[in-house]
Specification:
By secondary structure, the chain is mostly beta strands. 13% of the residues lie in helices and 45% in strands.
Length: 398
């Protein structure tokens, strides 16, 4: 593991180890030159390959021919920000064990360990790589959609960005609201060379896997969203029996009217706007009439999933889902006025219905009275027959 340059008499050591520390002496004629070699070895747990929220441990070893100096160790992350580790062991000054904070995917990159000592004077920088396999998405995000719209749910992996040279697997699951059962939509695996293979698993749930997308993206497309497509979509990675996941909650909004159809003159209609799951405290639903006044609007209360507004005139109404004063999605409902003849038909039907009800009521009363009279007549005749039988008399005309 060494070679000597015959011209300059340089000694070069390869694959340096802790045991190589010591005093190296060069003798030439009557000249003697000695050099003390101080060796450091820095290792990181799990060979520097982590998942988010895992905690790395650094081990710094030193060896020299003299006493081991007390080292001052300073760490810098991939953004060149100082990191203060927790020192777990420093009894012999030969071995330092440091515990870092929980990692995030953004922590991936080249870190620096600066080693300093005053006696002997040491200023040494040791670089090491930290790779955190995960998502560029947040751990949890919420996505809003309207009924009949097209929605694409995407998870962006960072394995290409951090040059991850290991194979891993993953799957995409869907869980409806208020249900503990998760249904697998697809699974995938990434080879050590970075090639992705996807397999569609669900047959009862209608979705598409877009073909033209980056290798580092997991994506599903819902071409026509239904109200029951709402729920949590969870993408999970698995590496060496360790897991990390990212969730997207899909909230679907729809609008309807009661009763359905054109609005007759003088009648009222209720417009209903609702979402598939409770909204966070910073979000609400709001009906408002286009070109209307502040009176022509209504907001939902906190955590309500539905808001209703009563309408008595034709016009265009919009329902907005607002989060942090920002409109996320909107749906409109056009209230149309019924033609005049329909209004007359409705009025006539109402009057006719009232007359019919009155007539039926009169008929029922008349029939009831007639039935009562017949019943009373029958009772009188029955009593007369009973009286004749009990007295057993017969009257004859002379």
């Amino acid at each position: 593991r060494s070679e000597i340059n015959p011209n300059s008499k340089y000694l070069k050591l390869f694959d340096l180890r802790l045991s190589d520390a010591g005093i190296y002496t060069c003798e030439y004629d009557s000249h003697t030159v000695s050099i003390s070699l101080h060796v450091f070895e820095l290792t990181i747990s799990l060979d520097g390959h982590f998942l988010p929220n895992e905690v790395p441990e650094l081990t710094l070893m030193q060896n020299s021919s003299h006493h081991q100096p007390n080292l001052i160790i300073t760490l810098f992350n991939s953004k060149n920000n100082r990191v203060i580790p927790k020192l777990l062991q420093n009894k012999t000054r030969q071995k330092y064990i440091m515990k870092l904070k929980q990692l995030e995917a953004a922590d991936s990159g080249t870190w620096m360990c600066h080693v300093h000592s005053d006696s002997p004077l040491i200023n040494q920088n040791i670089s090491f790589d930290v790779k955190v396999l995960g998502f560029q998405n947040p751990d949890f995000e919420r996505k809003y959609a309207t009924v009949d719209s097209t929605v694409i749910l995407s998870w962006h992996l960072n394995f290409q960005k951090i040059k991850w040279k290991e194979g891993f697997t993953g799957q995409l699951n869907r869980k409806q609201q208020k249900s503990a059962i998760a249904h697998e939509l697809l699974d995938f695996n990434i080879t050590a060379g970075g090639k992705k293979h996807e397999t569609k698993k669900s047959s009862h749930f209608q979705f598409e896997i877009p073909g033209s997308k980056p290798e580092s993206t997991i994506e599903v497309k819902l071409p026509k969203v239904h109200f029951n497509h709402s729920g949590q979509y969870q993408c999970q990675l698995a590496y060496n029996r360790r897991y990390v996941q990212s969730k997207i909650e899909l909230v679907v909004m729809k609008v309807s009217a009661n009763p359905v159809g054109p609005l007759p003159r003088g009648a009222k209609m209720t417009l209903i706007c609702q979402v598939s799951s409770p909204l966070p405290s910073n979000a609400h639903l709001c009906w408002e009439r286009v070109n209307g006044t502040q009176m022509d609007s209504k907001k939902s209360k906190q955590h309500e999933v539905k808001v209703e507004v009563n309408v008595s005139a034709a016009g265009l109404w919009n329902c907005h889902l607002i989060e942090d004063n920002e409109r996320k999605i909107s749906l409109n409902y056009a209230v149309e006025e019924a033609p005049v003849w329909i209004s007359y038909v409705v009025i006539g039907a109402s009057i006719g219905g009232s007359v019919l009800v009155f007539g039926l009521a009169c008929l029922c009363i008349t029939s009831s009275i007639s039935w009562q009279r017949r019943r009373q007549r029958a009772k009188r005749m029955a009593r007369a027959r009973q009286y004749l039988l009990e007295n057993k008399t017969c009257q004859c005309q002379q």
